[in-house]
Design brief:
single chain, alpha+beta, three-stranded antiparallel β-sheet, 3 strands
Length: about 110
C-alpha cells in the first residue's frame, strides 16, 4: 500500500537498484516470474562471480526487493513483486499533485 511506504524505505530500494549489477539481477528475477531463479542460473546468465553475486543479492534482500528460499540443495531467488509495486506506486502517488487542473492529480481526501 502506498501510504505504508516510508520515504526512507523508498530511498533504500532505489539506492539498491541504482547499481548496474543489482538492477540486472532484479530485472532477471522479475523476468523469471514467481518461480524465481536458482542462484547458479543467475550467475550463468549474468556472468557475475559468485562472491560478487552473493554480495549484491544480500543488498537486494536487505531492502526487501528479493527473497531467497532453499529448495533441497538449491538456493532460489525471487523478486518481491509486492515491494516492486509498492515502490512504483509510491513514486507515482503524487503525480501532478500540485498542478491545478491536472487530470492525473490525486483528489484530496
Amino acid at each position: 500500500m502506498v501510504a505504508d511506504m516510508k520515504i526512507d524505505d523508498a530511498a533504500a530500494r532505489l539506492e539498491a537498484l541504482g547499481n548496474r549489477t543489482r538492477l540486472q539481477i532484479y530485472r532477471a528475477l522479475v523476468r523469471a516470474g514467481h518461480p524465481g531463479m536458482p542462484v547458479g542460473r543467475l550467475q550463468e546468465k549474468l556472468k557475475v562471480p559468485a562472491s560478487t553475486l552473493s554480495h549484491h543479492i544480500k543488498t537486494l534482500v536487505s531492502v526487501g526487493l528479493v527473497s531467497q528460499v532453499r529448495e533441497s540443495t538449491t538456493l532460489v531467488c525471487h523478486a518481491n513483486f509486492e515491494a516492486m509495486r509498492g515502490l512504483v506506486d509510491f513514486l507515482a502517488s503524487e503525480c501532478c499533485a500540485d498542478e491545478v487542473g491536472c487530470k492525473g492529480a490525486q483528489t484530496a481526501a
